[in-house]
Amino acid sequence: MARKYDAIILGGGHHGLVCAAYLARAGRDVLVLERRHVLGGAAVTEELHPGFKFSVCSYVVSLLRPQIIRELRLARHGLEILPLEAAFTPYPDGRSLCRWADPHQTFEEIRRFSPRDAEAYGEFGLEMNKMGQFVKPILEMTPPDLTAANPLDWMELLKMGKRFGDLKDRRARLVKLMTMSSADLLDEWFESDHLKAPMAVSGIIGTFLGVRSPGTAYVLLHHYMGEIDGAYRSWGFAKGGTGAVSMSIARAAESYGAEILTESPVDHVIIEGGQATGVVLKNGDEHRARHVISGVDPHLTFLKLVGQDHLDDEFTKEIKRFKMRGSSGKVNLALDRAPNFVSRPGLGPHLCGDIAIAPSVEYLERAYDDAKYGDFSRKPYLNVVLPSMVDPSVAPPGKHIMSIFVQYAPYNIKEGAARWPEKREAFGDAVIDTLEEYCPGLRDSILFKQVLTPWDLEQEFGLTEGNIFHGELSLEQLFFLRPSARWSRYRTPIDKLWLCGSGAHPGGGLMGAPGANAARDLLNSGEI
C-alpha cells in the first residue's frame, strides 16, 4: 500500500522548510516537494560560474525570526550570519555618505550634510524601534477572523488594543506611519535629500509603489525590524550565500525525519469530497497525505494547482484581485577585481555592507515614472552588495561577486510580459551603465553576468509575476486581509489545504514566520 504522509509541503523554499521542520519535530511524517534541482526557492545559492557562489535572488538576512534559529538549532546545522557593517551611498557630485554600526561614526558622516539631521538620526532610530516593538509580536500571531463571531478572535484584538494604548503619545505616530509614504515620513524628521533618499528606499522594495505613495512607510518599518543575535535593526550575510539559510533549515527538518525531494514539480492538488488528499506530480506520480500545505504563492496555489472548479466564485475573485505586480529584477556579476567608487576610492569597510544608488528622492520618483508607463527604469534604484568582501568562500581569491537588486522592473511591460526576454539585455545594460557612473571600469571587470527579469523570476522560481513577496505588502493585503479576509489564518476554503508561504501573514522576506505560524496552528488544531 502506498505510504500516506501526515503532511505534504508544496515548495522547498525556506518557509516551506520551516513548516516541515516544526511538523517533523513534533513527530509528524512530512514530505517536501521542490520543483527545482536545488532547495531554497528564492533563498538559494548556486555556482553559476566556476568558483563563484551566487545568492541568486534573496541576498541578505535580517528578518529571520530569532526563535526559529534557536528552536530549530540552525547554528548546529551550519547557519552562520556575518553582520553587514555599513550602508554606503555614493552621489554623482563626488560625495558619499556611509552609515556605520558605530553611531558616532554615523553622526560624523551625516553632520557633513546636515548637523540637524545628525542630531535627529539617533532619535529617529529609537522611534522606529518603539514602533517595531509594537509590530513585532504581530508577526508571530495568527490574524483574528473578523468575519466570525469567535470571542477568542476579539480577545486577540483587545490585547492589541491594550498594547496600542500603552504607546500613549506614540499612538498618533503609529497610525500615521501605517498610512503615509516613506518619503513624507522622512520629511518630518530630516532636511537633507542625501540622507532621506537612501533611507526611503526600504519603503519600496518589492512593491509597485513610489517613495511618495501612501503605505510605503509601513514597508519601511517592515524592513526596519531586522534582528541578528539580539541586535535590533541588524542585517547580515549568510556565510556560503543565502542558500545556507535554506539548507540549514532543510538539514534541521531531515534530522527530525522529514523527507525532501527535489526535481519533483507538482501538477495539481488532489481534491476529493472537498478535501485535499494529496498531489500528482508532473511525471504522474501520486503522493497522499492527511494535509497539503502550500508554500507557493496564492495565485499559483489556487488558480493553477487547485483550479477554479474547486473554488467558489467569490473566493476566486478575491484571489484574482490579490495584487502580485512584480516590480523588481536582479543582476548578478562575477568580477575580476573589486569595484572602485570615485566618491570613496579603494578597498575599505564601506564595501562590506550594502550600497544604495539612490542619490535623491526625485531620482527615485523618476525611476518609478518609467515603471508606471510600462518600462524598466532607465536610471534605476540599485541595492548592491559584495558578499565576497565579507565571506571570501563565495569567490576565488582576489575575485568578487556583485549582487544587484534592481527597482523598477515591472512584470507587465507595455509590450507584454512574454516580451521580457527581448529586453533582458537592455535591462542589464541599464543597470551596469548606471553603476559605471559611480565606479568607472566596472564593465571591463565583469567575468560573468546573470540578468533576472520579473519574467525570469516567474519562469525559473515560480514567483507569479516575479513578485518576491508572493503579493504586495500594501495595507489592503496585510494581516487579516492576507490573502483574503475570510481566509487569512493559514487555512483555505479547501479542507485540509493550508498556506505557509509569503502570501500568508505576515508576508514576505527571509523571515520564516509564515511557515512557523502555519505549523503551530495545524498542530494546535488537533487535526494532525
Question: Which class of the largest domain in CATH terms?
Answer: Alpha Beta
State the helix count: 17
- Average pLDDT for all residues: 93
Question: How would you name the oligomeric state of the polypeptide chains in this document?
Answer: single chain
> Total strand count, please?
20
Estimate nothing, just give the exact number of structural domains. 3
- What is the terminal separation in angstroms? 21 Å
* Helix and strand composition category: alpha/beta
CATH architecture of the largest domain: 3-Layer(bba) Sandwich
Strand content: 15-25%
- Shape type: globular
Radius of gyration: 22 Å
CATH fold type of the largest domain: FAD/NAD(P)-binding domain
